[in-house]
Amino acid sequence: MIKLRAVFEKKDRAKYISHLDLNRCMLRTFRRSGLPIWYTEGFHSHPYFSFALALSLGYESSCEILDFNLNEEIPFDEVRDRLNAVMPYGMKIISVAEPKLKITAIAKAEYSFSLKSDNINALVADIERLLNNDEILVEKKTKKGIQSVNIRPFIEVISGVAGAGAYNMMMRLPAGTQTNYNPALFFTALKNFTEIPFEVADIKRTEILCADGKIFK
Amino acid sequence: MLREKIEKHLLDVQKPSRYIGGEVGSIIKDKSKIDVRFAFCFPDTYDIGMSHLGMKILYSLTNERENYWCERCFAPSEDFEKIMRENDIPLYALESLDPIKDFDFIGFTMQYELSYTNVLNMLDLAGIPVFTRDRTEELTQIVVAGGPCVCNPEPLADFFDLFILGEGEEVNLELMDLYHKMKKQGASRKDFLREACKIEGIYVPEFYKFSYKPDGTIEKVETTNNAPEIVKKRIIKDFDKVYYPDNFVVPFTEIVHDRVSVEVLRGCLRGCRFCQAGFIYRPFREKKSGTIVEQTKCLCENTGYDEVSLASLSTSDHSEISPILSELIEYTADEKITLSLPSLRVDNFSEELLEKIKKVRKSGLTFAPEAATQRLRDAINKNVSEEEIMNTCRIAFEGGYSSVKLYFMMGLPTETDEDIIGIAELSQRIIDLFYSLPNKPKGRGVQISISCATFVPKPFTPFQFEAQDTREMIEHKQKLLLDSVNRKRVKVSYHDANVSILEAVLAKGDRRLCNVIYTAWKKGCKFDSWGEYFQFEKWVEAFNECNVDMSFYANRKIPYDEILAWEHLDYYISKEFFVRENRKAHEFTTTPHCRLKCSGCGVNKEIGGKCFD
Predict the structure, then answer these.
(1) What is the phi/psi pair of residue B309, to 5°?
(2) Does domain A104-210 fall into CATH 3.40.50.300?
(3) Do A58 and B250 touch (CB under 8 A)?
């Protein structure tokens, strides 16, 4: 059994494939590729696919991680090309390699998004005021039910660029097997904070990172 | 741009991937190079429509032609329909995301009567006038329909420019070719329809005028515009060589039949007297075993599906079923593919076949005796004996099965209370059989599921002349069945009587129903086949407002010499045959299946000789 890790992008119409459907979609993609998929032993034999992080429906990504197993050693580039030849529109394998780190090494994820408003200057001012607070409380669904959490300490703003009718932000948030903060929490907080109507567009996960800020491999 | 408008709302609806296309296997073309655009519409949601085999065949076949583009379109669910209406998003096709109102053809497949209101709703959502009389004179936006329900298309006559009768693999392209030619010549819609009706299999309803007698029955049907007096359905002569897709559109979201489907035979040789499919798809034709195996492999490889099913009306009637199964079982086991085999018959269910099936499925077995007493089975020509049913159950039980699902019908012609009680008695004999077997499955009790449908008389069957039971009779029989069965071991399910009544009216109806369907839709009826949406009271209001009596269509026995609403359509089965078969039903006389003896239904005249060597 050969353990492999693929980085893939999910864009365009493919962003509407739900996490549940993605597993089935990948299985069929692998079957179409004719690659020698490794199946689990046991009574209900099935192929092994593991996605490092779930991606919200409607979000694009350029950095999704899929772990899978093959029965034979095949050059990484060949695996990538054979999969890409039969991938659904909007999905593409960027690279295939041996897994270097354990999934538990994932600590955060970076997102880019666009906040659209007719009154962009006022919105940007409100965003700055919001982020200047030490405490930003939002309701978050946890295993223990809905809890009010302070998300401010977890928000790492990377950039914010105002353009015509839009404010484009990049932001890092905790991600991984333990804690996950979805940028939707920030959008909710902003909606609660500002009077200015805005819409969120083009949400995209751009990196999956380790605690030290290095790219997860 | 429409796409932006759609995407703006897509995350507010359930299963958005149904509304945006982009699936593997979907075909995108450069529309500047396209001469004819066809929107293949299924009048139900994506999850149901995407399971339909006919669409897969005709989609791929049309798209093989470089300059034609066939796209898919489904009824949106309630949540998305609301958004579409609020935001002026017209009904669009999934490949280009272009509005279907700009297409050359808008083609619906009519698979069940209870989807009729969805057609009107989809046309309305598309911004296309629902009545043909309100459509443009220009040659564009031709609204067409095919599928089993168009064997009596009269209740839909006011909504469609033309109907395609029979198998579409050849005639669809002929129709598109004619359109292409006439469009270049600058012809009008009417010019096109006048030419189209000369193609065999094309029925243009506006060229036929019905007149009625004072008692409401049909007096005569007159043709105009030189349309043929009798319109014949289309048949594919060489079924083994007929086009079959080498790829399917593979959906992201789960659909009802989420698998490869390979058609193994078309038509049916059995002649059960209630079954419309058994007659309208005649003659019986098989694909060669090599073709079936090759198509299975090809489709599994191209789609990546890990499940395949053999599609037909009666798979075990294939003359080479055993070698086909042997080969497919070997292939599917090697490739870790699940093979499913619907439509097996009780009487030719051998131990050899069971051995093969056991390798592929672990769940329960389903059989359709349809009636519980021999007399009634003889009346409906279900040529199955009690011995065969018991023998099959014994083989199944000894093979390790402990649950059996049985399909019955209720309200069949000549049926009495004894026949209903007979269902309970037959189930009890099966239960007793289970416990009498020394080698029955250990540690488990037997479970019998009975699914009891209400008989709906259908056009082009020997029972087309029959009256359906009234609601009171149906409800009485349903209660009787529940009271008669062993409730511990037998689970009974049956349909809402109102659904079956409406089905009968729509199936046997004529043009006077067009207004009823329109009125019902205006009152909010849609998705009538979905229990949660079915509003029978609205339908009753519609019938009353239009002064149409449901019982005239559902509960009236039709004399043999009455002109039927579908008599000007020729499905190659003669009326004399149906009359003969109807008489035999009332005499409880059976007709052997076509391989044993030709019953002279008439279809052999079309194929020019015998159906079997």
Answers:
(1) -130, 150
(2) no
(3) no
Task: Answer whether A32 touches B (CB < 8 Å).
Answer: yes
Quickly list H helices, B465-535: 471-484, 497-508, 514-522
Is B20–A16 a contact, with Cβ atoms under 8 angstroms apart? yes
Cα separations in angstroms, B585 against A73, B413, B554: 67, 8, 19
**How many CB atoms within 10 Å of residue B82?**
14
* Contact predicate B279/B460, CB 8 Å: yes
Q: Do domains A2-99 and A104-210 have the same CATH topology?
A: yes
Domain-wise residue ranges, chain A: 2-99, 104-210
Looking at beta carbons, which residues of chain A come within 8 Å of B24? 28-29, 32, 86-89
Question: Per residue in B530-552, pLDDT tens?
Answer: 999 999 999 999 999 999 999 99
Residue B546, pLDDT score: 98
Please report residues of B whose CB lies closer than 8 A to that of A187.
Answer: none
| Chain A contact present for B253, CB below 8 A | yes
Cβ-Cβ contacts under 8 Å, B16 against chain A: 16, 57-58
Which residue, among B103, B100, B80, has the nearest Cα to B90 in the 3D structure?
B100
Residue whose pair of structure tokens reads 């928000």 in the numeric block: A155
Q: How many residues does chain A have?
A: 217
**Domains of chain B (ranges, CATH numbers):** 2-232 (3.40.50.280)
Largest CA distance in chain A: 61
Residue B324 above 70 pLDDT?
A: yes
Say which residues have a Cβ less than 8 Å from residue B467's Cβ, sequence separation at least 6.
Answer: B457, B554, B555, B556, B557
Choose from B8, B18, B24, B28 for mutation: most chain A CBs within 10 A: B24
CA distance A86 to chain B (A): 8
**Chain-chain contact of B24 with A89 (C-beta, under 8 angstroms):** yes
CB pairs under 8 A between A and B: 62
Kindly state whether B16 is in contact with chain A, defined as any CB-CB distance less than 8 angstroms: yes
Q: Cβ contact (<8 Å) for B301 and A34?
A: yes
Whole-angstrom CA distances from B603 to B64, B283, B608 are 31, 6, 9
What mean pLDDT, rounded, does chain B reach?
94
B95 — contact with chain A (CB < 8 Å)?
no
B210: left (phi over 0), alpha (psi -120 to 50) or beta: beta
> Per residue in A189-202, pLDDT tens?
999 999 999 999 99
| Chain B partners within 8 Å of A12 (Cβ) | 22
CB of A89 less than 8 A from some CB of B: yes
- Number of residues that this document lists for chain B: 613
Q: What is the dihedral of CA B456, B462, B466, B470, to 10 degrees?
A: -20
Give the minimum alpha-carbon distance from B509 to chain A in angstroms, rounded to a whole number. 42
pLDDT of B163 over the 80 cut: yes
Contact of B27 with chain A, judged by CB distance below 8 Å, is answered with no
Q: Which helix (H) or strand (E) holds A93?
A: strand A91-97
Q: Would you call B543 helix, strand, or coil by DSSP?
A: helix
Q: Pull the structure tokens for residue B480.
A: 């009787």
Residues of B whose CB is below 8 A from A31: 300, 304-306
Q: What is the pTM of this model?
A: 0.94
Strands (E) in B312-355, as ranges, are 338-340
Cβ–Cβ < 8 Å for B207, B195:
no
pLDDT at A177: 82
Q: What is the pLDDT of residues B79-100, one digit of tens each?
A: 999 999 999 999 999 999 999 9
Q: Which fold has domain A2-99?
A: Alpha-Beta Plaits (3.30.70)
